[in-house]
């Protein structure tokens, strides 16, 4: 919540994005217009400056956005627009580096399982059969092992280590991993206790959370990290991720088999 | 009468503005080369400076075309140079790149080439060597325009 009305745009870009959207809902619509979907963020503790910088807007797009925000917060007043410092990016650098591309590919597998959640809920609603329980146990195991121990661990233990752990953006990402783990723990307990309502609630919550979380990583976080990592860091990250892949290699095929089985049913 | 010649050998002159030719300060022009030799036939792929290194395999013409080659691309990296059009016995190059990956355990490989079609051979050679290697490393390519601009930079 804003303690006082900001007096300059320089002050505005140093405020928490959620506080500004809460005080000026039209700012949320401006951000969405610029492809910045922070309105739906579950945490929202990033500074506007950081959020704008991470989205790799052109200077012209950034200035248009600030002009629109200034018109909402300081209507009719002359304002000086701030400029966000950015790294120069060589022409054509868009494709993700191999370790980041591998993680995007893992997201694709996780999203394939998330897409099955509505069908799983339909099965729960029809009746808690032994077969449905077994499938749900396998799905929870996939989420715990493939999505969390394999993929999220790569992010938290390897990729994120190259960046400031105290930055708002990484804190949001890690917080969302924690919320996801809470949903999965609760879903596992609900399955054990045969509590269909709680199971549906936590599967739905997990699916919605992770779908949005992956979108943010694929479209915003990873491209930003891709621009920031040096070639040397990319090589080291690739080698470390490869070691994790090797460790998990036998089980990965089993989990991908589960994805295919779910899609066939 | 117009003729269809090799784009890599076609004569052309680039007009430079006076501002383009202002001498750089000495500090900006400092060499970042940290090894010798550099020519692909002369290098030993197992030399200490290739062990675990970020290596830039650069087509001969690149460093002449690109104004900031040393500061932006060579700094902190080990280098080898080659010409995929004129050099002979390039099968040795494939073996050396393979040895960088498998034996010297290089960290990354960046292949820098000119925009002329014949230069693509150097990237193809690096990809071929990487496909034969047991280890995998990230490979990036950079395509430099004839007037020294970066036309494309991407991970393979």
Would you summarize the structure shown here?
With 265 residues, chain A is mainly α.
What is this structure's SSE topology?
The complex is a heterodimer of chains A (265) and B (156).
Chain A: H1 9-13, H2 17-23, H3 25-33, H4 48-54, H5 59-73, H6 98-114, H7 117-126, H8 130-157, H9 168-193, H10 196-228, H11 231-264
Chain B: E1 54-59, H1 62-65, H2 69-74, E2 78-82, H3 91-102, E3 108-114, H4 120-132, E4 139-144, E5 150-155
Parallel strand pairs in B: 1-2, 1-3, 3-4
Antiparallel strand pairs in B: 4-5
Helix pairs in contact in B: 3-4
Walkthrough of the structure:
The complex is a heterodimer of chains A (265) and B (156). Chain A has 265 residues and is mostly helical. Chain A folds into 2 domains: 9-73, SP0561-like, CATH 1.10.3910; 98-264, nmb1532 protein domain like (Four Helix Bundle (Hemerythrin (Met), subunit A)). Chain A has 11 helices and no strands. Chain A has helices spanning 9-13, 17-23, 25-33, 48-54, 59-73, 98-114, 117-126, 130-157, 168-193, 196-228, 231-264. The radius of gyration of chain A is 21 Å and the shape is globular. Chain B has 156 residues and is of the alpha/beta class. Chain B has one domain (32-155): Rossmann fold (3-Layer(aba) Sandwich). Helix content of chain B is 22%, strand content 19%. Chain B has 4 helices and 5 strands. A 5-stranded mixed β-sheet of chain B has the order 2-1-3-4-5. In chain B, α3 (91-102) crosses α4 (120-132).
């Amino acid at each position: 919540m804003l303690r006082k009305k900001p007096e300059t745009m320089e002050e505005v870009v140093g405020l928490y994005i959620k506080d500004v959207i809460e005080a000026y809902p039209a700012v949320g619509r401006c951000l969405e217009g610029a492809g910045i979907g922070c309105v739906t963020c579950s945490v929202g503790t990033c500074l506007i400056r950081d959020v704008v910088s991470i989205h790799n807007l052109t200077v012209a797009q950034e200035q248009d956005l600030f002009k629109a925000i200034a018109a909402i917060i300081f209507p009719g007043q002359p304002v000086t627009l701030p400029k966000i410092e950015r790294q120069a990016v060589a022409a054509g650098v868009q494709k993700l580096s191999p370790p980041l591309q591998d993680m995007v590919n893992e997201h694709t597998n996780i999203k394939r399982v998330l897409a099955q959640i509505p069908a799983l809920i339909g099965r729960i609603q029809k009746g808690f059969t032994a077969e449905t329980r077994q499938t749900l146990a396998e799905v929870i195991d996939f989420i715990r092992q493939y999505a969390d121990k394999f993929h999220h661990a790569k992010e938290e233990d390897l990729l994120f280590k190259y960046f400031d752990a105290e930055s708002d953006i990484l804190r949001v990402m890690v917080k969302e991993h924690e919320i996801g783990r809470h949903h999965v723990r609760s879903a596992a307990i609900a399955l054990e206790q045969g509590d269909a309502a709680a199971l549906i609630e936590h599967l739905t919550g997990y699916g919605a959370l992770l779908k949005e979380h992956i979108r943010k990583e694929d479209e915003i976080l990873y491209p930003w990290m891709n621009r920031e990592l040096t070639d040397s860091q990319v090589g080291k990250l690739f080698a470390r991720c490869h070691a994790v892949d090797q460790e998990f290699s036998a089980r990965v095929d089993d989990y991908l088999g589960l994805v295919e089985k779910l899609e066939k049913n | 009468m117009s003729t269809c010649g090799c784009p890599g050998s076609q004569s052309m002159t680039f007009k430079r503005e006076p501002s383009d030719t202002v001498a750089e300060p000495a500090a900006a022009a400092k060499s970042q080369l940290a090894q010798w030799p550099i020519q692909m036939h002369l290098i030993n792929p197992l030399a200490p400076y290739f062990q675990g290194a970020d290596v830039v395999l650069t087509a001969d013409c690149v460093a002449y075309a690109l104004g900031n080659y040393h500061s932006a691309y060579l700094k902190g990296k080990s280098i080898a140079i080659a010409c995929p059009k004129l050099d002979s016995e390039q099968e040795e190059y494939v073996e050396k790149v393979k040895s960088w990956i498998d034996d010297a355990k290089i960290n990354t490989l960046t292949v820098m080439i000119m925009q002329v079609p014949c230069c693509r051979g150097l990237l193809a050679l690096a990809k071929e060597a990487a496909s034969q290697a047991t280890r995998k490393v990230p490979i990036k390519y950079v395509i430099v325009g004839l007037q020294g601009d970066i036309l494309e930079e991407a991970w393979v």
